[in-house]
Every structure is written in structure tokens, then in C-alpha cells.
Amino acid sequence: MDKIAISDCKLFFTQSLSSLYPPNEIESLFRWTISHVLGIPFSHTIAYKDIKITNTQEIDIKTIVKKLQQTQPIQYIFGETEFFGLSFHVNSDVLIPRPETEELVEWILADHKQESASKRILDIGTGSGCIAISLAKNVPTSRVTALDVSHNAIEVAKRNAHNHELTIQFIEKDILHLKNGDLNEQFDVIVSNPPYVCENEKSTINNHVLLHEPHLALFVPNDNPLQFYEAIALFAHTNLAINGAVYVEINYLFGKETQQLFHQYGFSTHLKKDIAGKDRMIKAWKN
User: Fold this and answer.
1) How far is it, in rounded angstroms, from Cα 112 to Cα 285?
2) What CATH number should be reported for the domain holding residue 262?
3) 34-57: per-residue pLDDT in tens?
4) Of 7, 83, 135, 193, which is least surrounded by CB within 10 A?
5) Phi-psi map region of 243: left, alpha, beta (phi>0 left; psi -120 to 50 alpha)
């Protein structure tokens, strides 16, 4: 069977997507596509100019291009993504994990790496389970509970926990409407990356996010942008263990306001910037 030069396929790939993506992103998308279609590690695609592909593989690449032209995220096309060095199944029922959220996990692990005692961890709004699973994998003595309002998201997270051979308690509940007794235990770590993008920010969001990722996990009302943080602070006021801490990812536009909200519930806070220099994470603890 004749082999096709990858350079010919790259030309088609670039021309087809040049109006939608910048050159550096096209390069990255092409390498991820090669990695997926050929079943080779992403790192091995750096020398892709020497690769030859079959007719079938060329058809597979062109099918992926059509989906990218529809602004479908490549992670949904492949049904997987990487987070904190682990592979996760993803689909349009869950947000695609972001690098900023890895920084939140790093912060938690850095704070607790010297402690040997088992940790009771609660992940609120677990989505794909990326935070809960990354923490369970890196703190194997921990007992992890993960909460989400979406049944479909819980199913995705359960699949990911199974794939990583982890036991995590998943609960299908809405943090905004928890009832007394729904989750009445103490936690050493409460972590959340809740919805925090205001409805009026939609015009700034790329179509591959706006048209495909779940709005339930993204957006909050313009007149109540901190509703999830208030629910988390209220829950933590009662359910955070002595010497415990809350870690949340935030909208950088409301850093100070989110801090003040936690202060109103009797917490001290530390506001931390992400790698891009934006206010992105808050740690809160009881005085």
C-alpha cells in the first residue's frame, strides 16, 4: 500500500483551518491529530515531517479537520484530554480541564505534602472528576467525595475514576440547594472550580467553548456572579474541619469581592495569581 507524505496532509490541514485558528495553534492541533491517528506519543510528533501515512489515516485526519472547522474542541473529538499528567475521558457533558485548574491542584498538594494523616476531601462541581481524581491519585490515603448537579457529568467522572482504579464517593446534588443532612460531615479540604463566567462575558468567549462546552458549568447570572462562592462559604462554615482549608478557582474580575465574601463568613483568605498573572485562586480557612 502506498504511503502518503505527511507534508501534503499538513498543507491541507493548515489551509482548511487558517481562518479559524492562529498558526501556532494549528501546529499544535496538527501534532495532536497525528498523535491520535497514528497512536504515537505527542512528543514523538515533533519530527512529523519524516512520517508517512496510509490512505485510511489520511481520511481520518480529514474527518477530524471537518469537525475542527465546526469549532468542535479537539478534546471532544478525541474523547480524551490530559490533566495533571493523567488521561481523562471528556465529552460535551463536562468542561475541558484547564491548565489554571492544575495550579489549584498543585497548591493543595504543596500545602499538604508533609502531612501523613488521611485527608477527607470534597470536590464541589466535579465535572470530569479531574480535581478529585488528581488529588486521590497523589494523596492515596485520602478519602475523596465528589459532588455535581449533573447526572451526565457524574457518569463521566465515575468512568474516569474507574479507569484510574480509584474509589471515590460521587454524589448528585446541587450545592446551591443542599438540604440539612444531605452532606453532613466534616472535610479537611473543600475544593471547587465552580461556574464563574458572567452572562455578559459571552461575547468574549471563543466559539469552540461557547458552542460546545456545557453552559451549566460555565455561566452565572450578571446580578449574582458569586452565588456559588457564597454557597461554598456557607457550607464550609459548618462542614470544614478544624485546621481545614477551602480552595477555589475564581473569576479574576472578582478577586477582591470573592475574598470579602469569605471574610463575611469568618474566614481568612489568601488570593493567588495564576501563571498569566491574573487573580485566579483563593484559599480560605477558619480563624
Assistant:
1) 14
2) 3.40.50.150
3) 999 999 988 888 877 778 899 999
4) 7
5) left
